[in-house]
Structure formats: C-alpha cells, structure tokens
Amino acid sequence: MTGASRGIGRASCAALARRGYDLVITARTLREGEGVARAASVHDPRALPVAGSLEATAQLIRAAGREALPIRLDLLDRASIDAALERALAEWGHIDVLVNNGIYQGPGLMDRFLDVPVELMARIFLGNVFHQTHLTQRVLRHMLGRGGGIIVNMTSGSGQVDPPGPVGEGGWGFAYAASKAAFHRMVPLLHVEHAKDGIRAYNVDPGFTPTESQRVLHGGPSDLDAHWGGAPPEATGEVVGWLASDPAAAEWAGKLVLAQRLCRKLELLPGWPAPRAHDEKREGN
Question: Is residue 210 part of a domain?
C-alpha cells in the first residue's frame, strides 16, 4: 500500500486488516509529527504540519490482529521504491495485493494551465505515472511468477470528466488531471493482457474525499466541498477491502469502480451516508 499514512490509504489499510490481510505500508511520513501538508499551487509556498503517519497506521492494523511492516517510500525517488519492494519481499516473501494509492503532493496540482511550468509538470508525471508504472511492473512480474494477484489503482474523475469551472471554482489543475488520465489507462491494459494469468486489476475512483492535508491548508471546507459534497475516506477504504477479499468483486476486474456509489449500494460503511444526505450531492473528482 502506497500513501498509507493518512486519508484513503490509512482507511484502506484498516479495511484490509479487518479482512485478514497483513500489510506492507509505505509513505514519506514514517513517524507521527513528521507529516507535512504542502500547498498544491505554485502561488502558495505553505508547508504545514499535518497529523498521520505509518506509525499510526501500523497501530490500527495491529489492533485488528494483523501484522504491519512500515517502510518509508517517496514516489519521486525510484531508489526508495526499489528498496521498499526488496525489503518487503525479503521479509515477507510475497505480495498478494498492490494498492497504488500514493500520489505526488505539492505545487502544480491545483494551478491553472498557464501557471504550471513544464518542468514541474514532468515532476508530477514522475510521481503519478512513471514511478507508479515502475513499481507496478516489478510487482506484476512477481505476481505472474506466483500465478496471480490483485492490483488496485486509485484513479480520479478529474482525468475523465470536465470540471464545472476553473481552479478555485470547483475545478482542478490540468497537470493533475492529465497525470491521472494517463494513470487511468493502466488497468484496462493490465486486464486485457493478464486477466488470463490470474491478475485482477481495478480502477477505483473515490470521488471527492476531503483529506487531512486539505483541511489543514484550507482551515475547513474548500470550493470543492461546495461543488462535490464528498465522502469520508472510510467509504473508499471499505470498497478497497471488498475488492481484495470478496469473490463477487471479480466482475469489476478491468473496470472503473465508483467507490461512493458501490459503497452505498453494498452498504459497506454503516451510517454513511446519512439518510437525508443520500442523494443531495453529486460524486466528484
């Protein structure tokens, strides 16, 4: 699991642990107090402390009776990706499920087209596409050698649908949307090439999910909340757990899973959504 220190990653780890998985968890933030929320615009230099860590996620996993192996990993650093994978295989011997949840965090994600330097866009693609491809290729080869496995990619509606307005008015940045659109193409190709080899690959669109970093940076709801409503990270976390554990999930292999919709349909998260809010908000990016 990449991006496991907070948000959807942490919620997915908890859901997987409850379903019997031991977890290798990776992120940049290893210990509590090290987390930093970086603004997503070139016009905003802020980097603020944010709660969440692999240390805390590991505690959740162990409280569910499963094992956790926390490893620091930076998606912008291929050496750290290789080192994490090699350690995971050396200590545990195999990988049954890969969840590509982590992404580049920082300026350029929520900037308008003319404001994004091409050099920064290359950095966003490095973290969101190129290095995730590298990691998935290595894990896929391992899975093929074992006769199968599950790959879950956290995609985004921003790469598939048109925004209602520009950044700041319910929309998102071109660089973010373009990188997620490219990443989105991986799963259908994995499916047509390797479903026969026992590989089940899923695209999961969480819809708009307010994160700890967003709340720290905005001091509360943002313009995206007003346009998209959103859901707690646990909604997508439960969907990830279901995809990795329920035989019925096989029908979704190679397809796009709208997490909020499926969570509601299967009633995976008790108490969500509240009855009066069930149909009030559209699902977003």
Answer: yes
Residue 169 in any domain: the answer is yes
Q: Report the alpha-carbon angle 263-179-171, nearest 5.
A: 70
Helix axes 78-92, 131-146, angle to 10 degrees: 20
Residue 98 lies in a domain: yes
51 inside domain: yes
Domain of 188 in residue numbering reads as 7-277
Gap between the Cα atoms of 150 and 243, Å rounded: 9
Give the CATH number for residue 14: 3.40.50.720
CA distances from 275 to 116, 208, 260 (A): 41, 19, 14
The one-character DSSP state at 184 is H
CB 73 within 8 Å of CB 6: no
- Alpha carbon of residue 111 to chain centroid: 21
Tokens, residue 139: 């894990």
In the chain, which stretches have pLDDT less than 50? 277-278, 280
What are 15-53's pLDDT values in tens digits?
Answer: 999 999 999 999 999 999 999 999 999 999 999 999 999
Contacts of 180 (CB under 8 A, 6+ apart): 128, 155, 156, 158, 159
**What is the residue type of 208?**
F
User: For residues 253 and 200, is the Cβ–Cβ distance under 8 A?
Assistant: yes
N residues, the chain: 285
C-alpha closest to that of 25 among 65, 53, 63: 53
Q: What is the number of domains present in the chain?
A: 1
